[in-house]
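Input record (one chain):
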Amino acid sequence: MSLDIGRDARVTIGAASAGPRAWLAMKGFEVKGWCPDAWRPMQAGDGLLVRVRPPLGQLTRAEVLGLCEATKTYGRGRIEITARANLQVRGVGEGAWRDLVAALLALGLVDPDPAREAKRNVLVVPDWCDGDDSHRIATALLAQLDALPSVPGKVGFAIDAGVAPMLGEASADFRVERDSDGGLLVRADGRETGMALEPRDAADALVALARWFVESGGIGSGRMAHHLAPLPAWAQGGSRPAPARAPLWPGAHALGAIYGTAFGTIEADTLAAALADADAVRFTPWRQLLLEGAAARARDGLIDDAASPMLRVEACPGAPDCPQASVATRPLATALATRMTGTLHVSGCAKGCACRRSTDIVLTGRDGRFDIAFAARAGAPPRHEGVTPATLLARLGAA
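The corresponding structure, as predicted from the sequence alone:
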């Protein structure tokens, strides 16, 4: 199948929009205010960043092999798994972008309509099964993309209707969750309670909430958690989410086998090889692979040990891949991983793109050095300022 998206197609680099993180702009950081996708890539230090949103977080073996080949042909041969279970192709040149999009269209991994593609920001709990509540609600919501309004690029949905919520720390603005009585609720992010509903009504309720968000001025707020307008009466309720269950972790699983990745990055050849004995792969918001139908065994380039220290460490690409960063991040994070305990986040700048939550130790790059904070997020007021990597290795390695 051949598809022509037009030889005169151009890369669209979106303009930044004002939002609650305006303080970053005051510190000299470029605040994008939007997320890239296939039709709207983002410029990085190593070329264009193109995002792919696997439907329901799942790709078949054929789709994976096609994506890996396209990644090697038009990018750096490297794929990133995001905290929303999406995929990113790095290092795409402007001249290769249109050919990559054509390949993704041929694989069915991108909607031909850029407006519809921008709305496919739906995170599904990764252990869904065919026909269960999560699967049916997510499928129904994706079928209603045309009914969804246009919202800021970071706004998204979480379908978390398993036996108990698992996606509480994942970024989402409108959530479907299991409640404490075993039923379902729809909840706006930032609100402790939600409205009880039947599974058949969940997708319609999410569409209605998204429309209310836009009509009540939510675009100016940027995200639901920052939108202070009172919810409409029909969306108010006292149902609370059930206690959270633990996230998935490397090892055997009822659906196959789970593997971690260092910093969410995987070589295209490694991913293709992993599908040799798997029927399909699911990507998780913890930057893992769930290989469907595969046996749990050691695989080159993947983390199969749930106790691996690399699973406690987060780090963005850093310099020179990101123009916002003034420091290299991942070599330092790798060196520190085996020399300390607890969780660690090494961020190239105060934006903290790799990890939004607090970690035991966070190192924030600034002017070629690092600021150190504890039990905090990137950019938090530091306990120590302007520390070199060598000093960090000596200080934190002995901690």
